[in-house]
Amino acid sequence: MNGETIGTIGLLLLVIGLPLVLGAQEYFQAKKLALPVVRIACNAWLLPRLLWTLFQTAFGLSLGLAAGYAMRALGAQLASLLVAGILLPVAWWQFPAFRLLWTYWRHDGRAILVVNRAQKTATYCNQDFHFAFTLADVEQLTAHWPTRTRAASADYSYSVLTFANGTELVISNLLCNSFVLHTLLPGTLVTTVQQRYAWLPSDLLSRRLFGPFF
Fold this sequence. Notes:
By secondary structure, the protein is an alpha+beta fold. Helices cover 46% and strands 22% of the residues. The radius of gyration is 22 Å and the shape is elongated.
């Protein structure tokens, strides 16, 4: 079996198998959401287009290296400055997606959300704190979506649950997206906020790093 045959078989498996896997994922997720007690944790299938995020990051690094090589090869000449002036901003534009992935994973990549429909209660636990609440206390669900301007970074969004006492709980789509949350909290008021990048509310560093450039 030559390389072309193996490549063709691999492509067919990808074309045929990927839709089946995605369909199975939706089926099992629907079954999970119908259970009396729903337990949600981050898993590999919920990572938003991880491979594309990594590809975009690698592309940005390669552009940065190319700019450095051009400046080293050409020296401090106008041509090298022009090349670096073009490549470096484009390279920097490739990194917000990886930054989003990193901050989202640190926030609730290891979190667990458990919703008990019979008791109408829920608990959210991550590596930092444990938060228990009743479903009736959730007054509003605000979904924060990015503008669809960049393929990788546009896959990251988060939701804010606002409670009657003013407390807020931030849940990123690494754990649970706003559609699933609305399914679990059907009577909750839902609003949508669109922003350039869906930086988490506490992520001031990302705004400082990328805000002046975007």
